[in-house]
Specification:
301 residues, alpha+beta, Extracellular Endonuclease, Chain A, two-stranded antiparallel sheet, 29% helix, globular
Length: 301
């Protein structure tokens, strides 16, 4: 049939072929008009957030950031220093505000994905598959539940470190919840968390050889009372039956172990030394009820 149509000549200027072309042009024109005036999509699925939280090269207003050996990445609600050698950050840093913790909580997004801001490419979900380790948040999703984009940003794989399930859901969870309690009491905290990468990893997982740290740290600073006070924690990467207080250390001790200088631009060095060399756990109270829940339940999940 195609060959017959090709050999058939129509001497009329306005034949069936011409009419078909005009019809197609009219349909195309109508489609463009309809598309222009259609309302924007209001779909609120998790896919919408995969392009949110695009990293910035600016650390403006973030004078609380530590020293960095890795690539510095500044998302809207936190910053991190990514070390390609270990396929995870050496630290994440952010401000935790009481006002945000009392806002209505958004749903947990669960949209784990690679971080396109990492120049060397970050670890991915497949690295953790069947590894026996969970994707452990360093910036907790619970700290960013005040905003959907803030929540979604915590699911970048650049914010993850391999953690055993009893550790992630046990003592690490207890410390995260305890920090939120402290923020509610003291209004505003600076928080820095990360794996201890100066120690030999206990394992490597996935195609990208993601290091499994032997321990983790967290550093907290309260500046609100005009007399800075802080505390550090170094916790071995294993199930613990011990109270959190056992793992409290000075910020200086965390610096010595990690080779990271915390809060270096926030205040003069002499002011830093006044609180970084002191371990005073009195302001950093613990919930015995939460500790008992961890031992009886969370450690066995």
């Amino acid at each position: 049939m195609a060959k017959l149509r090709k050999n058939h000549r129509n001497t009329s200027l306005i034949g069936p072929g011409f009419i078909r072309i005009i019809g197609l042009l009219l349909i195309l024109l109508l489609g463009l008009i309809v598309f222009k005036f259609l309302p924007a999509s209001t779909d609120d699925s998790s896919e919408e957030y995969t392009n949110k939280g695009i990293a910035s090269s600016s650390a403006e207003g973030r004078n609380y950031l530590p020293s960095a050996q890795g690539q510095l990445i500044h998302h809207e609600h936190y910053s991190l220093s990514y070390l390609e050698e270990f396929e995870q950050p050496e630290w994440v840093a952010y401000e935790l505000k009481k006002s945000n913790l009392f806002k209505k909580h958004v749903p947990r997004s669960g949209d784990f994905r690679s971080d396109s801001a990492v120049k060397t490419t970050s670890a991915n979900k497949a690295d953790y598959k069947r590894s026996g380790y969970s994707r452990g948040h360093l910036v907790p999703a619970g700290d960013m539940a005040f905003d959907q984009n803030a929540m979604s940003e915590t699911f970048f794989m650049s914010n993850m470190s391999p953690q055993s399930i009893p550790f992630n859901g046990g003592i690490w969870r207890e410390l995260e919840e305890q920090v939120r309690d402290w923020a509610k009491k003291y209004n505003h905290l600076y928080v820095v968390s990360g794996p201890v990468l100066t120690e030999k990893p206990i394992d490597y997982i996935g195609h990208n050889d993601v290091a499994v740290p032997a321990s983790y740290y967290k550093v907290i600073l309260d500046m609100n009372r005009g007399n800075p006070r802080g505390i550090g924690y170094i916790i071995p990467h294993k199930t613990s039956e011990e109270p959190l207080e056992k793992y409290a250390v000075t910020i200086d001790e965390v610096e010595q172990l990690t080779k990271i200088d915390f809060f270096k631009d926030l205040m003069p060095e002499e002011e830093q030394q006044a609180f970084e060399s002191v371990k005073n756990t009195r302001p950093w109270y613990f919930s015995d009820k939460r500790f008992q829940t961890r031992k009886k339940s969370w450690n066995n999940m």
